[in-house]
Amino acid sequence: MKNSGKVWLVGAGPGDITLLTLKALQCIQQADVIIYDRLVNPKILDGCSVNCTCINVGKSPGYHCVPQEEINALLIQHARTHRNIVRLKGGDPYVFGRGAEEVECLVEEGIAFEVVPGISSAIGGLACAGIPVTHRDLASGFHVVTGHTREGNQQQDWRQLAKLNGTLVIVMGIANLPFICEELLMGGKSPDTPAAIVMSATRENQRRLTCTLGTLLTKAQEANIVPPALIVVGDVVRLSDRLSFIPEVMERVYSESCS
Ligand code: SAH
Fold first, then answer.
1. Alpha carbon 164 to its chain's center
2. pTM value > 0.70
3. Ligand 1 first shell, C-beta below 6 A
4. CATH assignment of the domain containing 162
5. What pLDDT, in 10s, does the model give residues 126-142?
6. Co-location of 125 and 185 in the same domain
7. Beta 229-233 vs 207-212: how paired, if at all?
8. Closest residue to atom 5 of ligand 1, CA basis
9. In terms of residue numbers, what domain contains 37?
10. Residue 199: inside a domain, yes or no?
11. Closest to 87 measured CA to CA, from 141, 27, 162, 142
12. How many CA atoms lie within 13 Å of 172's alpha carbon, on the beta-carbon side?
């Protein structure tokens, strides 16, 4: 049986399992195989059927558990032997999730696929920490960039990014924070610009640190910030105390949908 299956590239949202879309939930329930990443809340897997095989290909920063080529090979192999293969990724699969690389490989192999978008941590994760990425008076746009670029690829031009208006959201930036802060300041960003780090957004251990760009590095070091975390630079951070909230835990909704 060649290429009998379909691969669903599914966004699992930022962490809170009730931030899954209905379509994502349905994919998980119908999956024969789920291949999931480190940032996916493992509780989501409670929704799959007893016959479903779940494969963890989680990557830690700086250490790739399963190389990308092997993940691609796994997708192809399972698509040839199973009907519904779910490739589950944190947040949205096309926001720094290598989703496009995996779909390109499926296209090359003639394997059917569908993309199920998810709530990206870069927007939804910040919202749950009281930070709106835009605001009519404070930010007319936002830029989501990676703080970690692949070796050999074009590096981020932080000094140019410093000149842009709007909110700057940096994912995968914690390890590179000293350089990022220094370069943004060198690029002319005022040290008084409000800045924040949101750690484990939408999860039980969510933490938010707010300060200014000038104090961000020291504060982050004092607070012992560890990934996953988002760095935000921009005036919208000023709203975060006023707009933050304690979310209601609604996990029962998920377990009921799963049963
Ligand atoms: N596709 C994902 C992003 C993958 S890149 C999305 O749309 O959200 C991985 C980076 O995303 C992490 O290093 C971190 O910067 C950010 N991230 C993902 N989930 C997060 C969370 N719950 N809290 C804070 N940052 C998160």
1. 23
2. yes
3. 14-15, 39, 89-92, 95-97, 120-122, 125, 171-172, 198, 200-203, 227-230
4. 3.30.950.10
5. 999 999 999 999 999 99
6. yes
7. unpaired
8. 96
9. 6-116
10. yes
11. 27
12. 17
